[in-house]
Amino acid sequence: MKKLFKLILILSLFSLNSSQIFAAEKVDYLKTDWSFKGLFGKFDRATLQRGYQVYTEVCASCHSMKYLSYRNLSEEGGPEFSEAAAKAIAASFEVKDGPNADGEMFTRPGKLSDKFVMPYDNVKAAQAANGGAYPPDMSVLVKARGGGVDYIYSLLQGYEDPPSGVTLDDGVYYNKYMYGNKIRMAAPLSDGIVEYGDGTNASVEQMSKDVTTFLMWAAEPHLEARHQMGFKAIVYLIILTILVYFSMKKIWSRVESEV
Amino acid sequence: MSDKKPKRREFLFTATTAVGAVGAAAVVWPMVDQMNPDASVKALASTEVDVSSVKPGNTITVLWRGKPVFIRRRTKEEIEEARSVKMEELIHPEKDEDRAKNPEWLVMVGVCTHLGCVPLNDKGDYNGWFCPCHGSHYDTSGRIRKGPAPWNMEVPKYEFVNANTIKIG
Amino acid sequence: MSDHDYKPKSKVGQWFNDRLPLLTLANHLTDYPTPKNLNYWWTFGGILTFCLITQIITGLTLAMHYIAHADMAFESVEHIMRDVNYGWLIRYIHANGASMFFLAVYIHIFRSLFYGSYKSPREIIWILGIVIYLLMMAAAFMGYVLPWGQMSFWGATVITNLFSAIPLVGEGIVTWLWGGYSVDNPTLTRFFTLHYLIPFLILGLVVLHIWALHVPGNNNPVGIDIKKPSKDTVPFHPYIVIKDGFALLMFMIVFAFFVFYTPNILGHADNYIEANPMVTPAHIVPEWYLLPFYAILRSVPDKLLGVVAMLSAILILAALPWLDTSKIRSAVFRPLYKQFYWILVADVLILGYVGAMPAEGLYLLIARVATAYYFLHFLVILPVLGFKERTLPVPLSITEPILGGSPNLAAARHRESKIK
Q: Inter-chain contact B38–C87, Cβ cutoff 8 Å?
């Protein structure tokens, strides 16, 4: 009994950190079923591919993803575009390279090894083009926000007219899921803003889910490998624990019987 | 001491030890593999080189995967010299026709196969390259002729994208 | 067999052992007589050794890829997470390993508090342990700075600014720590150097800690001195080795769950935003294992006194062997102390909780009461208790029948085995 009490105390100590994050921003986020949650969670390839499309066609005009490379798009555990498709995607971007033999910078079509091309040369340029607000890099955005995927998913659908009494400056929008409710980004998604190649209806909800899944993969590209290895590791540990338990009982039986 | 079923006990201990050892070995691998080339290094793509300004008898050196690559535009005499050598005379017999598909251009990794130094151009007893570290002599096809190096200089995978551009890798 | 009697069997072994008595040492470690009634709270010493070695190995491998430069640190961590073979695994083990290390060390410390393991003749073991704990905190803090995220940067700023509370020289010390006028690249590179160094200092201290332990031998749940070797002891190998191994595996299952399924839950989201000296995150919170001390710091309204209170909270532990005046070690035979012990546990947990909350209103009040009680426990309750408390009769040995029939785990087990 006392041991149980202690265990509960310890566990409650452990959960402090997470509970405290949620306590600080007590918002009920929109829920959806994420395929990548749970012991065997995996990404859905079609969702990731659609999510990539939303990212490039909508988000990428302002948000960089500087830690991703085009090769990632064809790597295992990701959207898994064919290598040819990933090459074609890379080649559709102009990459700055150089200096060449004459000391000049030049542009060339992208290659698989190139990092995602950034919309702005630097943070200052990004701020200048966005009224002083810096559109954050999206490579690890999901992990950099307390609510994670639920927060991003909700934010994308959280635009509404401000309640009476709330005045908004020019270039500021009302979003019920944003911290402080004021956001410098206009609602990025509207029904049909992209045309999905696989015929999926591009509703705001669908696109939010697709692009959020894509961002989750971008932040955790090895999530699938992690889940698979984790399951194996824990099963292995349980088996070994059982074996060691019985070995321990055998060994200790020598002394216990002596007593 | 109660030692009634020694056989079963032994089996239990052996099984426990064996399962434990498998796990320990499995944990070692990631710690070793992390030192292998990572995904970004492996993806490091090809290098394209503009060779339009290289005159016959000249060599340019470009960097590919962190190593120097010699690109030599050979003269007629050099080609002839390289192609007239008998196979029996070679330490590491390779036909010049196989090393330089386009006889005018010799493309090879400029690293001595002895211990990795960069050989000097237009030096040595065979009018090709000479490695100053331990005195290996290479001919006009980059083949080892004399000295401690065991193999010819390596020809990387390359192709002519057009008449003036070579893509290495 | 005593260490002096030990003779290796083979000639080569004898030749070697005469010159470097490593085999004598190995023999000592395997034969080391250990009380047979040690419970699972005693397995955390072995678990902590595992934690230290895990942190050192994963740390060494991470250091092969990490770049300690303000402009590249964050990117190099992402490089580890994305491109390096198994980099994500190694980093998540290292990051969660720090939390697991502290979880284990807190259990280890509180076990010692419950069973009076810090009392004579084990004061030196205890003080070495406190020094190890302090170094662990330093290593953990500096390690948290290395990814150069927002929490890294602002945590470093806040903690180093503690030193500015020192009168006269404080500002100078802070500038010296930073190597500049703010936390910046010179700070990062020196933190990396020290973060690399400290684990090896800890390793050395752990050797001393174990050495000091092997002089008097282990304390035990009954808290009495025992003859060794005797019927009360078992050789360390295989009895304690297999038991420690079993506990370690249970611990590793929890560890693996964190690493593979919730690797970021113990971290803070803001640390995935690259350090920005222009913007402070909304809530600056240290890692969970430092929260109680953070609460003590904030509960004192004066800057200097707050820092003094926080440091005293840790250093007071070093004086514990002399503050606790009771001759009885184990709380099993100290009914009053046992109650105060659990109040202290609750107090520290409450401090941890309010440390995570904003320092205002009710939280601040609770923090102040809990801080006051923390010091009250060590400075008043413990010394007085030693004189006032009526303790229960203590058995003479672990296996012998007990005087006065006091409740005792060993006795219960003893009776049970008789029935069988």
A: yes
CB contact (8 A) between residue C89 and residue B30: yes
The mean pLDDT value for C328-356 works out to: 96
How confident is the model over A39-49, as a mean pLDDT?
95
A129-166 pLDDT, tens digit per residue, is 988 889 999 999 999 998 999 999 999 999 999 988 88
- Residue A167 in any domain: the answer is yes
Report the interhelical angle of C150-161 vs C123-145 (nearest 10°): 130
Contact A201, A207 (CB under 8 A): no
Cβ atoms of C397 and C370 within 8 Å: the answer is no
Amino acid at C375: F
Is residue A175, in this structure, part of any structural domain at all?
yes
pLDDT value of residue B6: 54
Instruction: Say how far apart CA A93 and CA C345 lie, in whole Å.
Output: 60
What distance in Å separates the CA atoms of residue A222 and residue C85, rounded to the nearest whole number?
Answer: 11
Name every chain B residue with its beta carbon within 8 A of the beta carbon of A258. Answer: 1
C87-115 vs C241-261: helix crossing angle, rounded to 10: 130
Strand order of the sheet with strand B47-50?
B47-50, B165-168, B158-162
Is the CA virtual torsion C222, C228, C231, C234 positive or negative? positive
Q: How far apart are CA A120 and CA A127, in angstroms?
A: 9
Q: Are B159 and B147 in contact (CB under 8 A)?
A: no
Confidence band, pLDDT 50/70/90 cuts, at residue C398: confident
Under 8 Å CB-to-CB from B39, ≥6 apart: which residues?
A: A71, A75, C82, C83, C84, C85
Residues 6+ apart with CB under 8 A from A11: none
Instruction: Assess whether A247 and A119 both reside in one domain.
Output: no
* Ramachandran sector of residue C10 (left: φ over 0; alpha: ψ -120 to 50; beta: rest): beta
Same domain, A187 and A241: no
| pLDDT tens figures, B114-125 | 999 999 998 899
When pLDDT is cut at 50, 70 and 90, the band that residue A4 belongs to is low
**Domain-embedded: residue A8:** no
Same domain, A192 and A258: no
What is the model's pLDDT at position A198?
93
pLDDT at res. C227:
84
| Mean pLDDT of all residues in C328-347 | 96
Question: Is residue A193 located within the same domain as residue A217?
Answer: yes
Would you mind telling me the total number of residues written for chain A in this entry?
Answer: 259
For chain A, the domain total comes to 2
Q: Supply the range of the domain harboring residue A216.
A: 23-68+115-221
Tens digits of residue pLDDT in C9-65: 999 999 999 999 999 999 999 999 999 999 999 999 999 999 999 999 999 999 999
Is there a contact between C332 and C272 (Cβ–Cβ < 8 Å)?
A: no
Cα separations in angstroms, A60 against A64, C101, C346: 6, 41, 50
Whether residue A36 contacts residue A223, with contact meaning beta carbons closer than 8 Å, is answered with: yes
CA distance A240 to chain B (A): 7
Same domain for A211 and A229, yes or no, is no
Across the interface, do A234 and C253 touch by the CB < 8 Å criterion? yes
Give, rounded to a whole angstrom, the gap between the first and last alpha carbons of chain A.
Answer: 27
Q: Are residues A216 and A228 in the same domain?
A: no
Q: Is C90 on the interface with B (CB under 8 A)?
A: yes
A229 shares a domain with A139: no
Give me the pLDDT at residue A100, please. Answer: 80
What's the gap in Å between the CA of A184 and the closest CA on chain B?
A: 35
pTM equals 0.90
Sign of the alpha-carbon torsion through A140, C151, C354, C55: positive
Does A43 lie in the same domain as A151? yes
Question: Per the domain annotation, does A34 fall within a domain?
Answer: yes
Mind listing the pLDDT tens digit for each residue in A165-183? 888 888 899 999 988 889 9
Cβ B34–C57 below 8 Å, yes or no? Answer: no
CATH code where residue A30 lies:
1.10.760.10
